[in-house]
Every structure is written in C-alpha cells, then in structure tokens.
Design goal:
Elements lengths: L1 E6 L4 E8 L3 E9 L1 H5 L6 H22 L9 E7 L3 H18 L3 E5 H7 L12 E6 L4 E8 L2 E7 L5 H11 L6 H9 L24 H16 L5 H30 L3 E5 L6 H13 L3 E3 L10 H12 L25
Parallel strand pairs: 1-4, 4-5, 6-9, 9-10
Antiparallel strand pairs: 1-2, 2-3, 6-7, 7-8
Helix pairs in contact: 2-3, 4-10, 5-6, 5-7, 5-8, 6-8, 7-8, 8-9
Bound molecules: adenosine-5'-triphosphate, magnesium ion and fe (iii) ion.
C-alpha cells in the first residue's frame, strides 16, 4: 500500500510517501522557522497561509521524487491533531479533497503517534513493547507502548514541555526561535562545572516532570550575572550548558526510572528535543546501566515531518481504518491515551 503522508500541525509543512512493502519512497519538508523568527514564535494565521502556499508543490515534489502519479496512490494520511486548528485544517482539507478526487481512503493521524513511531523508519526498529519518551515543543511524556494504539501514560510535564523550556531559555539568552538547537550550540562552549541547576522532581518518586522552576532559575542566574556586570559570552555559554545539563539529566533519570518500573528494556525517544546530542549521551548511559537500549529517529525525523505521519497512517490504513467520506478531522487538543489499537 502506497500512502501519502501530510503534516501541517504547526510550523512545518511535511509530505512523504511510504510504501508498506518497500518502505519510505520520498519525503520533503518546508520549515516556516525563518518566517516566524521575526515574531519570536509561531504566528498561527501566518502558519496556515504558508501551509496553503507550500503543500501542493511539496506533494508534487514528493510524487516526482518517487516517480509516481497521483493516481498510483493507495491512501492518504494527514495530521488531524493535536496542533493549531487553522494549520491542521489545511492538511485535513487537502487530504480529504485529494482522496475524494482519487477515490481512495483517507485517515486523520495523531501527531504524537507519528513522533512515537518515527524510529520505526530506521534500519533497526524497536520491537514492542517499549517505553517512549516524547519530548517536543508541546509535549513531555513517558508512555508505555505495548503496540500500535496501546498507549499507557506513565508520566508527563505538569507545566512546560522540555522543548518549550529550551525555547524560553533561548529567549532569555537573546537567541532566536526555535531555541533548542541554538541553546545546544551555545552550550557547547560552556563550562559544565560553573553552575549547577536543579533537576526538578527527581528527589521524589514518580514519573512526572516540571520545567517551569528551571526556567525561573535560569532567568535568576542571568539577572544576577547581569547585575554583577558579568554576563559576557562565556557566562551565557555557561548558563546554556547548566540549563541543558539539568534538562538532559532530569529526562535521563526519569527514563531510567520508567524502565525499572515497567521492567522493559527498550526506550524510544522522539520529538524535537530527541535531536539533542547531550540528551542522547545521557540516555545512552542511563539505558546501558539498566541493561536496556535506546532508539531514536534520524535527525530530520526528530522534529515535525511527513514521513512519521505516512508511516503511522499506513499502519492503521492497512488494518482498514479510515475517515468517513467528507468528514475531515482537525482536533487541536487530543490526549494520546484516547487512541486505540487499529
Ligand atoms: P508537538 O510535537 O508537541 O506538537 P512541535 O511539533 O512544535 O510540538 P517538534 O517539532 O517535535 O515540536 O520539536 C520542536 C521543539 O524541539 C522545539 O521546542 C525546539 O526548540 C526543540 N529542539 C529541536 N532541536 C533541539 C535540540 N537539538 N536540542 C534541544 N531542543 C531541540
Ligand atoms: Mg516545529
Ligand atoms: Fe511535533
């Protein structure tokens, strides 16, 4: 089955073609990052309009990359939520319109299920069951995954998501949006021994996270350096490093705890923050100590992309799942544990 995947939930227009026999055939992405950078974050209306401009050309690009005609598609999967409603509607209406014209099934996919299954596109995909750490711009969750659609939430952030914390720390350090990769780059030159930031909620049992206190801690550290006239480039790098170390350590401690609690030996890490090199190093150490193994998507499939949606959609479409004709789905809020097995 050849499935076209469409992702438009936020600020990336992603399109890909996945074949259930041959694997990923092609993928393309347009990031709106430069467009939103002037505003310091995603402007929803601008995002929707840009998805409208970019989506059809990207679909053509992916089809020609795979040397296929539209009529050779067997099904279409699109991100139905969670995300920005206007942005979601661009993908949903395009998918439904195309599917209607071609007379093929179409299915709305959960964006986080897409992130969660992205490592399945790699050469050595993890087998079920596993623990998944989802760390993105809007989510920080630990999930026990027993199969597709069998998700049990083990813990989540009670306030900011890890990616959101990175983005806010970046703003405090005068770095552009999106801040994650920029904080990481600045932290490279930082001294890990100069500041030690707290590892929130690691001193008590449980698998929930909280990153808002760490954000305040970062702001206080920056203000104190500023007032002392010591906020030079090295100090900014040292703060970035202390922040990154604290987030990565906290996530790694909770992952190890989740593996212990569930008795599972596979850890899947996905979402934008899973691209973070320091986090990966800490997770490698934590899983090794636990006799477990960590799995990640390739770099460009950590953040939003069409391939994860094509893959996740294909798993459900092949089982016969599909949207009702004419009923496109765009669900801004959609808890993942409401999903069920196909
Ligand atoms: P969600 O998936 O929860 O709806 P989203 O789609 O906006 O949110 P993603 O695209 O998965 O999130 O990830 C974007 C986030 O990842 C941003 O917050 C960004 O700062 C962060 N990020 C990306 N690369 C890195 C990195 N190398 N280190 C830390 N954070 C990173
Ligand atoms: Mg994004
Ligand atoms: Fe995402």
């Amino acid at each position: 089955m050849r499935v076209l995947g469409i992702e438009t939930s936020c600020d990336e227009t992603g399109v890909a073609l996945y074949d259930t026999d041959r694997g990923l055939l092609a993928d393309a992405l347009h990031s709106q990052v430069a467009m939103h950078a002037d505003y310091g974050g995603v402007v929803p209306e601008l995002a929707s309009r840009d998805h409208t401009r970019r989506l059809l050309p990207l679909i053509d690009q992916v089809l020609s990359g795979a040397q296929l005609e539209r009529t050779q598609l067997d099904a279409i999967a699109y991100t139905a939520g969670p995300g920005l409603v206007g942005a979601l509607m661009v993908g949903a209406s395009t998918a439904h319109g195309m599917a209607r014209a071609l007379g093929i099934p179409v299915l709305g996919v959960h964006h986080m299920e897409g992130h969660l299954l992205a490592p399945m596109l790699e050469d050595e995909p993890p087998a079920f069951p596993f623990v998944a750490l989802l760390v993105s711009g809007g989510h920080t969750q630990l999930v026990q995954v027993d199969g597709i659609g069998c998700y049990q939430l083990l813990g989540e952030s009670v306030d900011d998501a890890a990616g959101e914390a990175f983005d806010k720390a970046a703003k405090m350090l005068d770095l552009d949006y999106p801040g994650g990769p920029r904080v990481a780059a600045l932290a490279e030159g930082g001294d890990p021994g100069r500041f030690r930031f707290p590892r929130p909620m690691t001193d008590r049992p449980g698998l929930d996270f909280s990153f808002s206190g760490l954000k305040t801690h970062t702001l206080t550290a920056i203000r104190q350096l500023e007032q002392a006239g010591q906020l030079d480039d090295q100090a900014r790098a040292d703060v970035a490093r202390a922040f990154e170390e604290a987030v990565a350590d906290t996530l790694a401690i909770k992952c190890r705890r989740a593996l212990k609690q569930t008795g599972l030996t596979r850890l899947v890490v996905a979402g934008g923050v899973s691209a973070n090199v320091r986090l990966r190093a800490k997770l490698e150490e934590a899983t090794r100590k636990q006799g477990a193994r960590a799995y990640y998507p390739r770099g460009r499939f950590c953040t939003d992309n069409g391939a994860m949606i094509a893959y996740a959609g294909a798993q459900r479409l092949i089982a016969g799942e599909k949207d009702t004709v004419g009923q496109m789905k765009a669900v801004p809020r959609w808890p993942m544990d409401q999903l069920s097995a196909p």
